[in-house]
């Protein structure tokens, strides 16, 4: 028994509701319905919550907040869209600023309809969510590592937009170090990356269905050098060994090369330390180009395999 | 003896050489050489005199020594007269001329024909002081090499480069300090004393701007006033006893008014030198000086000369009103100094006030003058010197690197100056955390004070309760996560690192070898002066070792840098901007940065107000001090001061069935705590007309949390929680195995500090405010909690839980609740805070959906949160154990049935309050809980103190001990408790 159904802690967020559903949510806590009987706690904190209960449709203002809160909840978690607006956008669906129901932004597990949703219906929805919560936990257990099993796999062409977006997020911290936002990875266009995809080996790291890391490499047959590049991990997922695993995957794919080569910014201490841990040694440093203070540090590793 | 002379003469010589060196490289060589030589000589001192010998006096009486010294004094006097006239400081001129004339008259007319042979001496106390000067103080000169170079670079255009003079004075000062601690001849002591005053004056005025000059003169006149008192004291003493030997004064058995007056005057000088109220302002002003000066003169060494003198005189002060007044001055300073430190943002001022406060505590111990208190005082001197010196150096470096002394600007130093911030935190840990020495010394001081006077207890309790507040909030500031910076550690030069490393190593070392330090140096000294001594006791040493062992595990945490946690940015109401730790989306699409500010509580602890009050109290007390036999004082004697302190026993002993009870606690406490939490929720629900969750709900919650993903902001958070848990277990074991109640109370707070640090580390605004408020809560309940321990001790005569439970057997018919009803009420009041119940659930806001989100636990989830919950169960059982203790005496059914029932009733009352009250503001929390401590706690303690009958009740059980020599004048000897003093 996993106890998830005995202790559901709820995070309640009002995405743009008229407060009708919110009143009903709070009514569930009153003596008449007393959901604490089931161990329900209305916590105000995503990091403690198991169930995200959202009322109202999602608009431009609240989209990021919904994403953030969802992202900050620990696995396993379920989302209950409460009320017709949260389910589909309701009467506001066609509004210029409305994204639609909650499922336009984050995956929704249970839909509770009604305008406003009745307390009984809300309780019903939460109870349904509990079953899903247990199932999700079991699914997590089935994967070897439990929570957040990661998969490293070759990327497909349809992954490219997501990888490009990820690359731009990941290189922002690099750009901050040099205060130079003109670096190539940040400016790369969709066509560029598609050309890259044609010539290179491409890997992605996936956690919970979302791409959180990527790496690519190509073999220079004349010099026998395997070039590794654009090794990116989403900042939220640093320090979990993703980079190392992707680097290994690229190296394995380029096993024919005699040596591997990477480059990084000369001030990017974290990167340099990372590559040093992976066995790379710096051998050359040169200016990126005129008009910038940035310098590239080239590092290499002999392929003993 | 040659070694002693070397230590006095060599630094002076080195100073003279340095006066002639303008080149930095050459200066480096000389300073390094001299430092190593002095350190080596100090170490040799330890080898030569660290063994068996107690007091060694040396006959060394060079011809015309007195005349030469007077000549030098006259030269210094002339110089000061010239300087003071130049700056139109006529008060100073007067204060220079009067003692000079007095001394001249004394030297040439009175001392005629008096020859003193044994001018120098060394004993264990002097040895300790010499080690502090040599090993803690001297490396500061090395630090100064690098620091002063940077200082001149920073301030070059305003400050003339007078580094040769600077180093000259620094070394002359060291020589004078060695002189102070080795001199047996009071005239010599006075000479060295005045030299330190001069050095301090010159160094404070180093910058030569208006502010420095003013502050230098303030320091000068205050210390000269002390010097004047010193001079008068010498003259009076010689007049009475025809002797100039320090030891004739220290060991003087005759405590008549005429002989106490010189002692009082010398204490006056000591109080001025160690910046006690009303003289504290000079030390604050002295913070304008370059940091090495602050570290050397104003924390670790020179101010220690003042406390050295008072502690040295302690045997003479024991059981006298003079001693009591000195102790009160120290106590007031300790309390006021600690209060003011809370309201300071300027790091150096926090250090300055904390220095003043800690010196106050030492003076308090010296004033009491019992063997226990002297033991505590010497310990305090050692620990304080090292840790505070380290802190000053760290702050000095941080100031140069961050260009600010403001604590608010030190946020995130763990990222911008990682190594430095670790050293700084080590220094702070040394100042107040277990198992570092300061805490133990405070504990010892409190024990020493309890038998003496409830008034002093008040000072110690309130002073030490607020200490943790300003240290922890500062630590939290250092730990805070800010947007990434590059580390600037490498810009700090080696000459600065080495002394800091040395001091950090010493902080840890004295903590580890502290039992050895006590037995081989401090106890022999106390034994030699008093014929008896105190020690920690094997049980307590064991506890300390366990704590050290636990802390030693801390670095291991880096090895297992959890793969199982997910690192996410802090909760910012969902408005986080994706990849930034500290930025959020503000109104109208703006990007804003999170800023976190500490509480400074100006409205309560503002410097201006408190200092004024403190100074006036100080002036009044000083006036009373020099007019010792103030008749009205006799009226207060009975209530506040027992004259001859009762001898207390403080041996820790584990009760029978130790292992069984520990095991029961470890297994049953979480079960009981979890059940209590479940029942709590049901009872609360019923009070609100609901049914509530199942009784096992808390266990379900924890079981679920254990299976959830663990999300943190910083990886180390989890380890803080782990230490919170472990320390709570240790505390519980301490209590339920029948250990020391006072140590339990201290340890209880320390455990909670780890959670607070974890919350600071997470640096979300919610957990930050939660942490601040948790600290505030600790500060609120700590005095009452300590008073409960003190009161229980007064009733039962023991701090050991096992003795307290068995108390009834000896006395027949009474439980603690009858003798300490007000204590029980006060305890119930603060239990509301400790159990996180409304109206005092400021830090966690357990009703959820409030502005704090979840306060201190906001950034914990999964296993960490489950562990916090389990720790809270243990904590609940532990604090309910305190209530239980009030009813557990007497027949068996009391402990097994009545006392648990009483604890149950108490818990029900807490639930009732929780549902009946709305949360108060923190101001109300602090005011009400301190008012309860003052009214209930102090009233009960004072009553117990005045009408205590425990001596009769316990006496038949143990063999009586011969009364200490009836010393004081008017005070009736009080029955003495059974004790087993060490041989």
List the helices and strands and how they pair.
The complex is a heterodimer of chains A (305) and B (983).
Chain A: E1 9-14, H1 20-27, E2 41-43, E3 51-55, E4 58-59, H2 60-72, E5 78-82, H3 84-88, E6 98-100, E7 110-112, H4 119-142, E8 150-154, H5 160-178, H6 184-187, H7 190-199, E9 201-207, E10 210-220, E11 225-233, H8 242-253, E12 259-265, H9 269-277, E13 281-287, E14 295-302
Parallel strand pairs in A: 1-2, 1-3, 3-5, 5-7, 11-12
Antiparallel strand pairs in A: 4-6, 8-9, 9-10, 10-11, 12-14, 13-14
Chain B: H1 2-19, H2 24-49, E1 56-58, H3 65-86, H4 90-110, E2 120-122, H5 124-137, H6 139-155, H7 163-182, H8 186-204, H9 210-241, H10 246-250, H11 257-273, H12 281-285, H13 291-300, H14 302-312, H15 314-317, H16 321-342, H17 347-368, H18 371-402, H19 413-416, H20 418-432, H21 437-450, H22 454-479, H23 494-512, H24 514-530, H25 538-552, E3 565-567, E4 583-585, E5 591-593, H26 602-605, H27 607-626, H28 633-640, H29 658-687, H30 697-707, E6 710-712, H31 717-736, H32 741-762, H33 765-796, H34 801-805, H35 807-811, H36 816-819, H37 821-834, H38 862-885, H39 892-916, H40 922-946, H41 950-954
Parallel strand pairs in B: 3-6
Antiparallel strand pairs in B: 1-2, 4-5
Helix pairs in contact in B: 1-2, 1-7, 2-5, 2-6, 3-4, 3-8, 4-9, 5-7, 5-18, 5-24, 6-13, 6-18, 6-23, 7-8, 8-9, 9-11, 11-14, 11-16, 13-18, 14-17, 16-17, 16-22, 16-27, 17-18, 17-21, 17-22, 18-20, 18-21, 18-23, 18-24, 20-22, 20-23, 21-22, 22-32, 22-33, 29-31, 29-38, 29-39, 30-38, 31-32, ...
Structural account:
The complex is a heterodimer of chains A (305) and B (983). Helices cover 34% and strands 27% of the residues of chain A. The longest helix of chain A has 24 residues, at 119-142. The mean pLDDT of chain A is 86. Chain A has a 7-stranded mixed sheet with strand order 8-9-10-11-12-14-13, with helices on both faces. Chain A has a 5-stranded parallel sheet with strand order 2-1-3-5-7, sandwiched between helices. A two-stranded antiparallel sheet of chain A has the order 4-6. With 305 residues, chain A is α/β, with parallel strands linked by helices. Chain B is mostly helical. Chain B contains 41 helices and 6 strands. In chain B, the strands form 3 sheets. Chain B has a two-stranded antiparallel sheet. A two-stranded parallel ribbon of chain B has the order 3-6. A two-stranded antiparallel sheet of chain B has the order 4-5. In chain B, helix 16 (321-342) runs parallel beside helix 22. Mean pLDDT of chain B is 82; it is low at 629-635, 642-655 and 949-983. At the A-B interface, strand 2, helix 2 and helix 5 of A face helix 30 of B.
């Amino acid at each position: 028994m996993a106890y998830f159904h005995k202790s559901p802690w709820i995070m309640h967020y009002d995405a743009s509701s008229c407060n009708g559903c919110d009143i009903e949510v709070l009514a569930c806590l009153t003596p008449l319905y007393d959901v604490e009987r089931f161990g329900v706690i209305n916590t105000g904190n995503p990091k403690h919550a198991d169930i995200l209960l959202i009322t109202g449709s999602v608009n431009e203002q609240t989209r990021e907040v919904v994403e953030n809160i969802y992202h900050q909840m620990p696995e396993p978690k379920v989302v209950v869209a409460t009320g017709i607006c949260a389910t589909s956008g309701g009467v506001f669906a066609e509004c210029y600023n409305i994204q639609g129901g909650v499922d336009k932004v984050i995956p929704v597990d249970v839909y509770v309809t009604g305008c406003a949703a009745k307390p009984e219906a809300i309780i019903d929805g939460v109870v349904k969510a509990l079953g899903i919560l247990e199932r999700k936990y079991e699914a997590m257990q089935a994967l070897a590592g439990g929570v957040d099993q990661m998969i490293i796999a070759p990327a497909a062409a349809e992954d490219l937009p997501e990888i490009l977006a990820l690359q731009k997020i990941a290189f922002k911290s690099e750009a901050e170090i040099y205060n130079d936002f003109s670096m190539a990875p940040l400016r790369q266009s969709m066509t560029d990356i598609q050309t890259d995809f044609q010539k290179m080996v491409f890997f992605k790291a996936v956690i919970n269905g979302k791409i959180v890391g990527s790496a690519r490499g190509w073999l220079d047959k004349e010099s026998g050098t395997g070039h590794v590049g654009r090794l990116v991990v989403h900042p939220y997922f640093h320090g979990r060994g993703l980079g190392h695993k992707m680097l290994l995957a690229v190296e394995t794919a380029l096993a024919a090369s005699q040596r591997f080569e990477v480059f990084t910014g000369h001030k990017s201490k974290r990167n340099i330390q990372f590559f040093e841990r992976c066995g790379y040694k710096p051998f050359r440093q040169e200016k990126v180009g005129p008009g910038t203070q940035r310098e590239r540090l080239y590092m290499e590793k002999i392929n003993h395999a | 003896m040659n070694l002693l002379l070397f230590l006095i003469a060599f630094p002076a010589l080195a100073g003279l050489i340095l006066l002639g060196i303008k080149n930095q490289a050459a200066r480096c060589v000389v300073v390094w050489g001299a430092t190593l030589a002095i350190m080596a000589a100090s170490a040799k001192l330890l080898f030569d005199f660290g063994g068996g010998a107690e007091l060694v006096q040396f006959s060394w009486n060079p011809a015309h020594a007195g005349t030469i010294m007077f000549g030098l004094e006259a030269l210094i006097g002339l110089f000061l007269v010239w300087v003071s006239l130049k700056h139109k400081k006529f008060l100073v001129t007067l204060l220079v001329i009067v003692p000079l004339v007095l001394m001249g008259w004394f030297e040439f007319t009175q001392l005629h024909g008096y020859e003193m042979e044994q001018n120098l001496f060394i004993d264990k106390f002097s040895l300790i002081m010499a080690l502090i000067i040599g090993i803690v103080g001297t490396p500061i000169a090395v630090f100064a090499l690098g620091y002063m170079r940077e200082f001149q670079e920073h301030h070059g255009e305003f400050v003339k480069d007078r580094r040769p003079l600077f180093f000259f004075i620094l070394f002359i000062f060291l020589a004078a300090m060695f002189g102070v601690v080795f001199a047996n001849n009071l005239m010599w002591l006075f000479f060295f004393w005045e030299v330190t005053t001069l050095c301090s004056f010159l160094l404070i005025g180093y910058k030569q701007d208006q502010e420095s000059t003013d502050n230098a003169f303030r320091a000068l006149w205050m210390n000269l006033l002390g010097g004047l008192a010193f001079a008068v004291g010498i003259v009076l003493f010689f007049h009475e006893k025809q002797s100039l030997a320090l030891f004739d004064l220290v060991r003087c058995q005759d405590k008549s008014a005429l002989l106490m007056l010189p002692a009082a005057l010398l204490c006056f000088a000591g109080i001025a030198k160690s910046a006690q109220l009303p003289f504290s302002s000079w030390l604050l002003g002295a913070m304008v000086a370059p940091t090495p000066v602050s570290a050397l003169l104003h924390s670790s060494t020179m101010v220690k000369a003042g406390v050295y003198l008072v502690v040295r005189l302690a045997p003479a002060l024991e059981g006298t009103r003079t001693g009591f007044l000195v102790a009160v001055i120290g106590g007031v300073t300790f309390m006021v100094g600690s209060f003011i430190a809370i309201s300071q943002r300027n790091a150096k001022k926090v250090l300055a006030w904390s220095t003043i406060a800690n010196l106050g505590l030492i003076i308090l111990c010296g004033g009491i003058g019992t063997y226990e208190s002297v033991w505590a005082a010497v310990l305090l001197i050692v620990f304080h010197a090292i840790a505070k010196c380290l802190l000053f150096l760290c702050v000095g470096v941080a100031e140069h690197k961050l260009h600010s002394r403001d604590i608010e600007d030190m946020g995130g130093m763990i990222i911008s100056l990682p190594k430095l911030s670790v050293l700084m935190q080590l220094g702070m840990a040394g100042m107040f955390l277990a198992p570092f020495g300061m805490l133990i010394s405070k504990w010892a001081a409190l024990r020493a004070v309890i038998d003496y006077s409830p008034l002093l207890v008040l000072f110690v309790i309130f002073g030490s309760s607020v200490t943790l507040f300003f240290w922890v909030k500062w630590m939290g500031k250092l730990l805070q996560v800010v947007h990434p910076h590059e580390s600037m550690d490498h810009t700090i030069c080696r000459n600065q690192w080495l002394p800091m490393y040395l001091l950090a190593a010493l902080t840890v070392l004295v903590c580890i070898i502290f039992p050895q330090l006590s037995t081989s140096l401090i106890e022999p000294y106390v034994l030699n002066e008093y014929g008896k001594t105190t020690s920690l006791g094997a049980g307590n040493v064991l506890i300390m070792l366990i704590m050290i062992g636990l802390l030693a595990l801390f670095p291991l945490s880096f090895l297992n840098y959890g793969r199982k946690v997910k690192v996410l940015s802090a909760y910012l109401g969902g408005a986080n901007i994706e990849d930034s730790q500290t930025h959020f989306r503000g109104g109208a699409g703006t990007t804003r940065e999170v800023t976190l500010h500490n509480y400074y509580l100006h409205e309560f602890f503002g410097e201006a107000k408190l200092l004024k009050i403190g100074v006036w109290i100080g002036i009044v007390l000083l006036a009373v001090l020099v007019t010792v036999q103030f008749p009205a004082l006799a009226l207060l004697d009975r209530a506040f001061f027992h004259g001859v302190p009762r001898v207390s026993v403080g041996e820790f002993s584990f009760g029978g069935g130790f292992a069984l009870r520990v095991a029961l606690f470890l297994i049953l406490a979480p079960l009981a705590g979890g059940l209590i939490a479940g029942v709590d929720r049901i009872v609360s629900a019923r009070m609100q007309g609901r049914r509530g969750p199942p009784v096992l709900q808390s266990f379900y919650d924890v079981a679920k949390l254990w299976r959830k993903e663990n999300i943190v902001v910083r990886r180390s958070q989890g380890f803080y929680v782990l230490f919170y848990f472990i320390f709570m277990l240790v505390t519980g074991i301490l209590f339920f195995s029948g250990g020391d109640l006072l140590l339990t109370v201290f340890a209880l707070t320390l455990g909670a500090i780890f959670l607070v640090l974890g919350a600071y580390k997470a640096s979300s605004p919610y957990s930050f405010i939660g942490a601040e408020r948790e600290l505030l809560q600790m500060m609120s309940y700590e005095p009452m909690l300590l008073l409960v321990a003190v009161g229980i001790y007064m009733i039962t005569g023991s701090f050991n839980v096992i003795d307290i439970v068995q108390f009834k057997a000896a006395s027949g018919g009474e439980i603690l609740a009858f003798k300490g009803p007000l204590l029980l009420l006060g305890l119930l009041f603060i239990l509301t805070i400790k159990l996180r119940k409304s109206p005092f659930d400021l830090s966690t806001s357990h009703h959820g959906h409030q502005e704090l989100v979840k306060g201190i636990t906001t950034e914990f989830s999964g296993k960490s949160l489950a562990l916090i919950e389990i720790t809270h169960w243990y904590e609940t059982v532990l604090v309910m154990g305190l209530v239980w203790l009030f009813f557990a005496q007497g027949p068996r059914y009391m402990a097994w049935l009545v006392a648990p029932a009483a604890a149950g009733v108490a818990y029900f009352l807490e639930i009732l309050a929780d549902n009946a009250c709305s949360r108060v503001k923190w101001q109300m929390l602090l005011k009400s809980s301190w008012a309860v401590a003052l009214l209930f706690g102090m009233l009960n303690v004072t009553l117990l103190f005045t009408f205590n009958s425990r001596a009769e009740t316990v006496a038949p059980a143990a063999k009586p001990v011969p009364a200490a020599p009836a010393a004081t004048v008017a005070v009736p000897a009080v029955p003495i408790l059974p004790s087993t003093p060490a041989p």
